[in-house]
Design goal:
Number of strands: 2
Structural class: mainly alpha
Helix content: over 70%
Strand content: under 5%
Shape: globular
Strand order of the largest sheet: 1-2
Length: 524
Amino acid sequence: MMQGFELNITSSAKSGNIFSRMFEFLKRKIIVEKLNSIPGVIALLLCSAVTSYIVAKMGFNTGVALIVMITGIPVFFAIIFNLRFGVAIIIIFSFFLMFLMRITEDIPLGTVIDLIIALMMFGLLIKQINERDWSFAKNPISKVMFVWLLYNILQVANPTAESRLAWVYVIRSVIGVMILYFIMMYSIKDVRFITFLIKLWIVLAFIGALWGYYQEYIGFLSFEDNWIRADDLRHRLLFIAGRFRKFSIFSDPVVFGYLMAYTSLMLIILVAEGPFSKAKKIIMSLLAVFMLNAMLFSGTRSAYVIIFGGVIFYSVLKLNKKILLTSGALLLVGAGLIFMPTSNPNLKRFQSAFKPSDDPSYLVRQQRQALIRPYIQSHPFGGGLGSVGIWGRKFNPGSFLAKFAPDSTYVRLAVETGWLGLLLYLMLLFTVFYSGVKDYFRMKDPLLKAYSSAMLVALYVIAIGSYPQQATQMPNGIFVYIAIAIINRSRYFDNNISAADKRMVKDKPILTERKNSDENKQLH
């Protein structure tokens, strides 16, 4: 499934780049000349044996640290000099971050993502020394993104913030994911890489779904059970109505449920609109059903609702009779599931999502939002990044905001960055959807249109799902900026293809080039 993506760490480097030449020299001396031989293979086998012995004698954490030391240097240079490799690594790592943290416990793996993004940013700056081309960032979405980034940085001077240290801890992840967007914009240089990213995401989501099935039908592993029971509040949030909500390899059931929801919608849209073979459409359809069922294990009622929101948005986007009829049929099936009598606990929780007046947690959230509304209205810049949630309780345990649980991405933004910050964030979302939908209707290439519509629907689902829940934890937060970058670059590639179409009559070789390009983009 990953064909067409090459991790050639020097392919894009110019011969005059001193950093690239240095890296090529190290690769040749350390990897090619030293290890590409019988003595080199023997040395690797000995290293494996020593590592196994150390893990057996000194524990798993020591073994992980040793492996990181051995592989760190080549990976370090690969991330800097091949941004595509770095993007792939950060996506994979974001999926398994919480799973690894539950195993290792004391190792601060969260800082690894910050380090990877910092290395990629350094690599991008090195490339720009030679290329001096920032055209990839010159578009309306990138401009609003930069304003939002700058606003978050200036929050360090927020006069109402009670802790500058909390800002330091929060700003790393905020800046990191937005910088990742610009790195993505630079790295997506062809349609094949977009295809690779979507395939990679689907494969990783499938792994997450598989682990959800394991937890549902077999149970939790010992370290997962220990993690649940280590916090009484966490245990009460996960154990509801006599059964555990499943979180798979992610931080909590909300992340799991949302990821299954929008990934299954992506698959359905690719099946409906993409120029794929029948075999691939069957596989994607089965994956979508598999993930929708896994979504039920999470017990995340908001995920059930946003599925219907995504279907309605796509129906409006297409305004196609066939799509409208299909969507109508799906909504009727959903309505039947909502009102049918059942004893299935997963289906019962699904039905309760559409009866908010009977949901005590929904009523509690409404009361909290009413309580915090006067504060938001009187603080245009908010209480500062990190003033609520974990960081608020850590750095300002006695403050009013530290005791407030936002339960919503938008409410958290309004409290921390003020109504002005929330307005800027909504402006960013508006720009993304306005530009994305406008560009979608102008596109001619069927594959790029399918990719663009799938990303738009997934983003819309996350956007509406951010009201009842905090929906942008890892890896969902990374997906948001990847999807925005794909939407942006899809229009760029479609423009280039359209320009080639206009010259086909006068220049026959371009026709051949277009045909080959289309063949490369098809997923056979």
